[in-house]
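As a warm-up, study this chain.
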Amino acid sequence: MRVLEQGRIGGGASHGNCGTITPSHAPPLAAPGMVGQALRWMLSPSAPLYIKPRWDPALMRWLRTAAGRCNHRDWRASGLAKGAMLKHSRALIEELVSSHALDCGFEPGGFHYVFRRARALEKQQRDLPLLAELGIEAQVFDGAMLAADEPALHPGMAGSLFFPGDAQLRPERYTAELARLVRAAGGVIEEGVRVTGLHRGRHGIEAVQTTEGRHRAGKVLVALGAWSPEFERMIRMPIPIQPGKGYSITYERPVLAPRRPLVLKERSVCVTAWADGYRLGSTMEFSGYDDRLNRTRLDALERGAAEYLQQPVGPSKREEWCGWRPMTPDDLPLIGRVPGNNNLWLATGHGMMGMGMSAGTGRLVADLVCGREPAIDPAPYAPARFAR
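Now compare it with the structure written out below.
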């Protein structure tokens, strides 16, 4: 096996995310009422969602498709498929960490959605029947229960939804450990190599052209995250992915750090603490591939955290970061064979759940490529759903 990496292993969206493994995030973003909420957010540059004003026909088509899915039927269908992959992958990640002794800070301690307002907590509970259908356990904590479990929070929180099956890890260490396993198994990883073309023959893709030369190809997997749309012409099918820009700030760990990962729901800020670090992250910005750090959005992370946490930032700042998530309009990844090709597969479009879906995606791809019976139904993730 040969892995061609255009940058460095773990250097994309995997580098700066909050490292949460969350089956609880099964409900898709395109939910009933989201269109109105998104329009209200767009009035503020510091809101959780920001769309940079510009002429972008591909983005307009994407937004129109996503808006059309903000109904209960589509929300439920995507949620069941998304939840199935997240739950499957969660079990595989823990198995992988245990069986290969991965040094990645994996902790299966659960996850809190924290609310300042009782009304917001009550509203969020509309997702619980879907999660129960998926077998994802949830517990409702009132303010007193939450304060007892999480002393890092300010007093007076309304409560939380607690998901005991969720977990966390250190994302850059996880990707480094996966690379170690690939190399130990005899795989080759080439970093700083960009694919520039796919050469077709009588039996499918016969070679891959790169900036460092040509490689013969028996089976080809395109797993390019937010850069996947650049390969539409090469693979000859639409890839409706938009780069959803996220931000994070990494600090030295504060003295009073949260015991578990948190989402501060009204501000959409994710908080993760590790033994040797601390991170605030989130936000969603559609601004193309603009790689500039937006100070307004970084500051919004710290302001949001200060509304909930007694020590919202660490003693020193280590890194400010932004990266792109590969967002699909139905909030489901594209995993499977490219229509019209017998040896070309896709694994992309995981949105904000790349870490959480990692092991499940790897297992599903391996099953499909090797002709084995998949452990979960591959149909909801099939790239053919977007083929013209």
